[in-house]
């Protein structure tokens, strides 16, 4: 049996909602990539991470369908988990994409990641937040990695977003960090993103070819699989 911690990343200020993340602290207990992929599919969370070295913040990221070199939601979650497990906040994370700086601002955990290593989300603007709310899926079946969004308040930088990721085994992603990073980079400004059913994501451009994403993380549950 494998111990799996579950956290919710990008919770709202009251600690509700957020995107579930499976966390295997003892990655050596499931060393085979095929077995890791199988567990990630069984759990069904948008991502599950496996730590190969806690002290070095070395971890791998799996969706229910594929392994990723970098993603925002699991990286923010990894930084929060490491702070709790080690008693100190890491300065950098080490997913397969390379070193990812991380820091904390109040209750929010932030990471800076390379856009070239993030999933290639397509993003399309809709006419209103209500149009986003009324979606039952992507605009067309072939849009299998799609972010659909609308301004709530353009001056304030608040947007309404939903993300559909069948390509990665995720029919709808409750709160997608990498898509939020791509949107902030494309718009060139800091965003407050009302995502999914009630999650809250913060994102902003970083240095050239990078973007930053942050939010609140809360503990959810622990299970054995």
From TrEMBL:
Gene3D superfamilies xrefs: Diaminopimelate Epimerase, Chain A, domain 1
Protein name (record): PhzF family phenazine biosynthesis protein
Domain of life: Bacteria
């Amino acid at each position: 049996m494998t111990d799996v911690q579950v956290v919710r990343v990008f919770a709202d200020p009251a600690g509700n909602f957020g995107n579930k993340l499976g966390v295997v602290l003892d990655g050596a207990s499931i060393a085979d990539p095929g077995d890791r992929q199988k567990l990630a599919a069984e759990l069904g969370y948008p991502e599950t991470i496996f730590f190969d070295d806690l002290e070095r913040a070395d971890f791998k990221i799996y969706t229910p369908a594929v392994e990723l070199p970098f993603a925002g939601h699991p990286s923010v979650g990894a930084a929060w988990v490491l702070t709790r497990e080690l008693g100190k906040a890491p300065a950098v994370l080490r997913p397969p994409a390379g070193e990812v700086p991380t820091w904390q601002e109040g209750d929010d955990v932030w990471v800076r990641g390379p856009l070239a290593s993030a999933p290639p989300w397509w993003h399309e603007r809709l006419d209103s937040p209500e149009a986003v709310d009324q979606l039952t899926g992507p605009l067309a079946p072939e849009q299998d990695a799609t972010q659909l969004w609308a301004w709530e308040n353009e001056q304030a930088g608040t947007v309404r977003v939903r993300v559909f990721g069948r390509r990665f085994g995720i029919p709808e992603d409750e709160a997608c960090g990498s898509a939020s990073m791509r949107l902030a980079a494309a718009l060139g400004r800091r965003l407050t993103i009302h995502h999914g059913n009630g999650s809250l994501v913060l994102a902003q451009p970083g240095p050239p070819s990078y973007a930053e994403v942050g939010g609140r993380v809360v503990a959810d549950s622990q299970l054995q699989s």
